[in-house]
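Weekend entry, working from home. Most of the wet-lab plans are on hold until the incubator is repaired, so I used the time to fold the two sequences that have been sitting in the queue since the last round of cloning. Logging both here for the record. First:
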Amino acid sequence: MAAPVVSHGPVDAPARESLEAGLKHSALPRRALPWLVGGWLVASVLGMGLVWSHASAAGLAATPPSRLPERFARAPGAWTLLVFLHPQCPCSRATLAELAKLLDREGARLATHVFVWAPRQAPPGFERSELWTRAVGLPGVEVVADVDGQVARELGARTSGQVVLYSPDGVDRFSGGITPARGHEGDSAGAGAIRDLLRAEDPRVATAPVFGCALQTASTASSGETP
């Protein structure tokens, strides 16, 4: 039987055009790949930048009175530590985590009071959040519902996570936050300053940024939504 004849002649025009189109189509993804990768990298960097920009954006600082108001009872020889929280602020979990570390090391020298914002017009139990439960679980801490933010206003606190420290003789020695960024745990200038003060050392700072949600806004007061 004769072997089949295979033609190696020139390809007709329609077949050639189809082949060239296929080759061009297959080359397009390869050419676009560097641009796609570059675009993804740029978008990732911009996204990370926005996230860190939010995390590092401090809230409004407090303007506490220079002396502890008389209505606050002072325990003999103890430093008075006042902490202000918005009950729905996720950033303040880190504040309570750092407060727990501070109390574990220096709690015997502190009379600690946590004031949780409780607007009258909010839904019932608004202030009894996860943060309230965590604060109540800290040893030796008094947790108080701050109705309509009366105590926060008296102490000039405007951001959840605000901490104010008064010496045993009632003098304001520190005002600020005890976290390094929004929702981030770890060493911070504020926590370090408090430890230095309690150990009779010169603090590195007398104030530090506060990272958290606003304690009072019109929308959160009326609806109870997370700020």
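Second, folded right after the first finished:
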Amino acid sequence: MGWQDNDDSPWGKKQPPDLRDVIDKLKKSLPINKLPLIGSHGFIPSIIVIALILWLASGIFFVAPDEVGVVKRFGKAVRTVMPGPNYHAPMPIETVMRPKVTRVQRLEIGFRSLGERQKGRVRAVPSESLMLTKAENIINLTFIVQYKIKDAAAYLFNIKDQTETVMAAAEAAMRETVGKNDIDDTLTTGKYQIQQETKENLQAILDSYKAGIHVVAVQLQDVHPPDQVMAAFKDVASAKEDKSKLINEAHGYRNEILPKAKGKAAQITNDAIAYRESKIIQAQGDASRFSQMLAQYKMAQDITKKRLYIEMMEEILPKVDKIIIDKNVGRNILPHLPLDKKTVKTMQ
């Protein structure tokens, strides 16, 4: 089936081959002469049969392991097929869509990554990231959403613009959650709770849409006050830190002083109790001794009186040398000073 040489042809020296020669050569090369032919011109029906076979064979399709096939009949979903070889009626009767149901898709809200060339750099989207907290404080919050397809037919036909729908629902769920929390909790200890509440709210919204989507995770990326009030917020944070520091120091001083004061109070109390007990015992002993002495005094008043006098003098003058003289005998005794036991000081 080559081009024929002809100098007079409009194409120059080359001319298209004759159509009859092409058909004759095609008949010899293809086994179409064995097919049932209709009429004397049987080649055209054979072509139609071959085309019909090829058209019917075009309904064979394969679904990858990470996909699910959704078969449409005149644009309407009629069935879902699992991975492997499958068949549907040829186009345009039926067509197939094969979404990847095992792939975890990722959405960025409040920021956009700038790609591989500028890896690590992002572009802020303030219209998505600026939110109001419970006390109407403005906060700048960025986060990502990870989700998978759990119902391929619902995902493809129940919602339009799936990515934009999930982003809008995620932003609404996050704004609702942040609006129920204080700014301090959002910036510090309440991040995990906010992530979980947002995930639950987002899943509820998508389920109400019958979107066929399973939310895998909601992760906060960056949470901070807006740049316009960053300096004032840092001042407030520093004041709070100073307040906490002073409170902790006061607690430490209290924890140091209170045990000492309690110990000293317990010591004083114990000393007072011991003093009271000793005085009580001493008083009881004195009372008992007095009672016994009274009994002796009643039996021999003069002797007891003298003994009491002498004992009292011994108690009053414990370091003074004493000489006891009977009053009846002492009249004839000349008292004298024991000069040998005194130190005489000479006045200068």
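Plan for Monday: verify the second prediction. The chain has a mean pLDDT of 79.
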